[in-house]
Amino acid sequence: MCGFGGYFGSIRGAEALLARMIAAIAHRGPDEQGKFVAPDAGLGHARLSVIGIGDGQQPMSDVSGNLTIAFNGEIFNYLELREGLIAKGRRFRTSSDTEVILHLYDEMGEDCLSLLNGDFAFAIWDNRRRRMVLARDRMGVRPLFHTNKDGVLYFASEIKALLKVPGVSAEIDPIALNQIFTLWAPIAPRTAFRNIHELEPASVMIATPGQVTVKRYWQLDYPHRDAPSKLTNEDDAAEELQALLTDAVRLRMRADVPVGSYLSGGLDSSLVSALAAGMTPLQLQTFSVTFDSAEHDESAFQTEMASALGARHRTIACRAGDIAGVFPEVIRFAERPIIRTAPAPLYQLSGLVRQAGLKVVLTGEGADEVFAGYDIFREARVRRFCGRQPASRMRPQLFRRLYPYLPGLQQQSVEYLAAFFGAGNTALDDPLFSHRPRFKTTAAAKIFFSGDLRATLKGYDAAEELVSRLPQAFPLWHPLHQAQYLETRFLLPGYILSSQGDRMAMAHGIEGRFPYLDHRLVEFAARLPPEMKLKGLVEKHILRKVAGHLLPSAIRERSKQPYRAPEARSFVGAGELDYVSDLLSEASIAAGGLFNAKAVASLHEKCRTQPASGFRDNAAFVGILSTQLWQKSFTGHKAGAARAA
């Protein structure tokens, strides 16, 4: 795992610029740094040495000197690919996976991407064809950003590096802010920064003099809803799934350093940890975060699972005030406003891994998207059930079963439940049916936008833009698969793998690995009949079947408890930090120009006096505070409501 940056075009002071770019992202690769400069092209690299420790330095060139790569991530099947290349007569000078990419590209060009099983972003300078090739992994685990300035293409693993380019400045993109306050994340290629873009997952960019083309090399797809499935035997499907997941974990245990595992106490990370424990010759090291608040804490399950594995288990407590204490750093590394505090404890957790001397951890992210584990999937099924009999008073009571961890919901009336979840209020053929309640509830926080920002946005609708990005086959999929696509294609890379994943881990130089996002497993799960994933209202049914004897029954049969962290109440009260009061003051809000100062003052006071604020107020509070922190960190808090892009 590493970080890199570079350019394609004619510039002055290349060495100095690359040094500044790499220094800005040195946290991603604290072990070594390197630079490569050629006429009209340059690459810089900050290395976290995990594979080929002694000979994997980058940027790396091939024997001819015609190909040079800067690479972030891992190619997990590099040994198998290497053996095939050797059989063809290829000779290797290093033991790294980086050199495997160079040889494959030399043989196949960008078509080599179809053979790579990994989490990666890379840039290859192809001197023979005078082109720069940028690529990103299928699921969007590793980030890659780019911008154009005076006809030169600049790119980097994090936007901080691009801000070192002369003339590239930080300015909020109001459309992206609207998307964050609706969809939780910008719709790629848009980022929070105006004129700085993200290379989308599963995409390759080829830049030649005067031309830049981007194409997708892989697409998440699902079968037609009426097509007969070839995976009809549940036992056979579970057996195949177990083989795929076991192999995905095996590949991700490959490293020249020890590999640990996050352990949340839920099914997903527990199953990964159980498989990993059987593959390591050493005692598996596991890591968890605990909370003071009972509604967020899962420490009892974490302890039970760690004991069952015989793991060396470490925990870090997220106490009152801790989230507020690290939140400015969280926003600096996330490089975007966020509406949830969940990244903050994960920032602390990766710090614990670094303190333990590890560089690599397995995680359970991706299972909820791939195997339909989120409440939103069950909720959509109940909403469709209610929508078929909108006058029923019995059907809305099912919503109580979905959220046992939300005690306030249990006491609400049937009428409230039906209204809150929009039962019967959304057309069943709406492409965003599954997500409309979430988007509507989140977008309610935009009531705090300033008049200037509203005028700039001119009625822009983020949800409708999302609809315009859906594939042509989307209406032909089963409703569950439609919902899964929305989560997997947009929220997963846009928020989970970025704001909660790569950026929080790499802030401490930690590489997260995601077995559930092995593309073979993702493709297999997409072909599974919906009822094998969501059986009635039991989420991840087939994954529970795979867990079988591997997990204690209390973990295996446990209902999904989504990972959450305390929100507005983390920042207010007796120990309120000065920066919170300063950034939410009427003067500071007015200077930022994005929110209504008086409305924000009322919200701040409400959160101080009513700790149990609802979702809208929590999302608004965190979103506004994080936007103010973003402006302070990247623009000096001088930017106002920018013109629309």
From TrEMBL:
Pfam families: Asn_synthase, GATase_7. Its EC number is 6.3.5.4. Keywords: ATP-binding, Glutamine amidotransferase, Ligase, Nucleotide-binding. One of its GO terms (molecular function) is asparagine synthase (glutamine-hydrolyzing) activity. It comes from Mesorhizobium escarrei. It comes from the Bacteria. CDD domains: Asn_synthase_B_C, AsnB. Belongs to the asparagine synthetase family. This is asparagine synthase (glutamine-hydrolyzing). InterPro entries: Asn_synth_AEB, Asn_synthase, ASN_synthetase/amidase, AsnB_N, GATase_2_dom, Ntn_hydrolases_N, Rossmann-like_a/b/a_fold. Residues 2-210 form the Glutamine amidotransferase type-2 domain. NCBIfam families: asn_synth_AEB. It is an enzyme of class 6 (ligase). Pathway: Amino-acid biosynthesis; L-asparagine biosynthesis; L-asparagine from L-aspartate (L-Gln route): step 1/1. It catalyses: L-aspartate + L-glutamine + ATP + H2O = L-asparagine + L-glutamate + AMP + diphosphate + H(+).
